[in-house]
Amino acid sequence: MPASHPLFSSRVLLLGCMLLVSSIGLVASTSAEEIVQPARPSHLEGAEIQSTQTNQDNGQPVSDNVSPAATFDGDPVQVLIQQHLEQMYYDKQDSIAQEPIYTTGYLFDLYRRNQFRPLWSNQDNIHQLLTAIAAADDEGLTPDDYHLKVLNRYASELNSAPSLAKQVEYDLLFSDAFVLLGQHKRYGKVDPNKVEEKQNLEATTPRTSPIDTYLTAIRTGAIQATLDKLSPHHKAYVNLKEALIRYKQIASKGGWPQVPMGPSLRPGAHDDRVPAIRRRLAITDHYHATGGGNAKQYDSHLVAAVKAFQARHHLEPDGVVGKSTVMAMNVTVAERIKQLRVNLERTRWVIHDMPSSNLIVDIAGFMLQYYHDNAPVWTSKVMVGQPFHQTPIFRSAITYIVLNPTWTITPDIVKNETVPSIIKDPGYLAKQRLRVLDRNGNAVDPNTIPWTQYQGRYFPYTLRQDAGRDNSLGLIKFLFPNPYHVYLHDTPSKSLFGRTRRAFSHGCIRVQNPLELGRMILANDPGNPTTPAKMDQILASGKTTTVILKQPLPIYLMYLTANVQDNKVMFKPDLYSRDEGILTALNTPPSSLELAPQVPEAKGQLTNQQVRIDKTVRYVQTEQQKSTEPYAKDTL
């Protein structure tokens, strides 16, 4: 494939034409210079303009007191590109050739670093970008967001020598598509702040200007390699991507059959629906035919396949084909593809910045995993918030552990639950080992309190449960800064871990085996004087003790309704009904990416480029996040 195409290879011809125009004196009032020269504001007339030339080897700006036209040596291509960019930036013209432009600030920086020269004069670069855009569908993104139809049409017009204006327009569209796709691969298309009410997933490291990355990729012909590098390479993301590709293949073959509703089907039964169940499960590799037997009998081989299907769809794996199981089987492949797309987007929000050791709470899956040195080393069941007490989505870091904790009940729980229980049962306080304290921490006789006066109203006292195995927080809790008063803790209600769906809390995360987790965290916290053995001694003493971690452990509270576990795709109910908002945003045209470039104060003026920070990003300031005692430890 040739290194360049006719897009801008006729530089000599253009310059010759310009010399010819010059030789006749430029007498026409509609000369080429007047058409393409950027308009200068009146306050700059007669003023000397500060411009910038960019060293093409290192991309660093060099200032000269010359006019923009002199900077370009009279090249109308460069002047026309600058004019387009200034119109987009200053005049808010957010489209070119009726195609929306989403990365105006990025493009201004990108082209200025390249002296406003065209960037897409290499056919191989064009081919790489078009291929990458088409493949964006495999990551749950929409190729048409990146001008695919228009750019494909242009690629087919190359041999017809499009006009100079068209060439410039397409050059800008190619750049817009490249930057937009790269940013979406790296950070996601959807702004989580606009679709998640209770979340804090902003990057923990700043988003520095990517202009050098994109410009280097274009100059070195590394379009595909750069975009591949910007995509997440974490196993969780790669597995979801492979699952999406596979389910798209299933869709291309017609999907799977619907299973008729009917009475619950139990092992050993005969039913006309059994063949349909076999066909349905075979398509998703839950069932592999063995041959022989009664086609309508619900035999042990099919029962095992149904149990596997139930486990992978967060249903009780009892082998009974009831209403819930049939409904899960009848979710179409198109709906499963949507679910995978949504969770690929969620993963893009956080996966790049994950350190090698961390905790991940899978809210929708009711599970917790501890990763150490990039490997999962421990897994536990958890309970999460009820739909009306949703566990929020955020990232933080565990900074300390409390052994033998007390429980101070939050005002909301006191008002809505505890006071009504006390009014109903005067012995409730004694049964729950709750003490009443005034604002100075002094004990108050509960018999002196007119409880009925505080029903549904603010309660001016503190209710505290002493430490012990029957304490609502159990024997241990794990604290991490967050504005939601959420934490991990033990619980005396162990029987609830036997349930498949475990949404029972007020928002906090109850861990099935929290003492094991505490020992592992302390064992991997070098220099901490509280060793696992010391922790056990403190627990046995019953004394409430706070253990500060030497190295805070990052924690991610994530909401994934689809993931891959042990090479099997797991689909989960949308417990908090959060998928639809993300899917709608994914299917909506992109929002403009706001970069705050150091642009000229007025048209025609060039200034030095500085590294930019995306002004739409807010960072987690952990040093400003303080424990909001007493309630940070008491939500349950």
Automatic annotation (TrEMBL):
Top-rank taxon, per record: Bacteria
L,D-TPase catalytic domain boundaries: 357-533
Xref: SUPFAM superfamilies: L,D-transpeptidase catalytic domain-like (SSF141523), PGBD-like (SSF47090)
Positions annotated as active site in the UniProt record: 489, 508
One function term, GO molecular function aspect: carboxypeptidase activity
Alphabetized InterPro entries for the sequence: LD-transpeptidase_YkuD-like (IPR052905), LD_TPept_cat_dom (IPR005490), LD_TPept_scaffold_dom (IPR045380), Peptidoglycan-bd-like (IPR002477), PGBD-like_sf (IPR036365), PGBDSf (IPR036366), Transpep_catalytic_dom (IPR038063)
Keywords carried by this UniProt record: Cell shape, Cell wall biogenesis/degradation, Peptidoglycan synthesis, Transferase
One GO BP: peptidoglycan biosynthetic process
Pathway: Cell wall biogenesis; peptidoglycan biosynthesis
Similarity-based family: Belongs to the YkuD family.
Protein name: ErfK/YbiS/YcfS/YnhG family protein
Species of origin: Desulfobulbus propionicus (strain ATCC 33891 / DSM 2032 / VKM B-1956 / 1pr3)
Lineage of producing organism: Bacteria, Pseudomonadati, Thermodesulfobacteriota, Desulfobulbia, Desulfobulbales
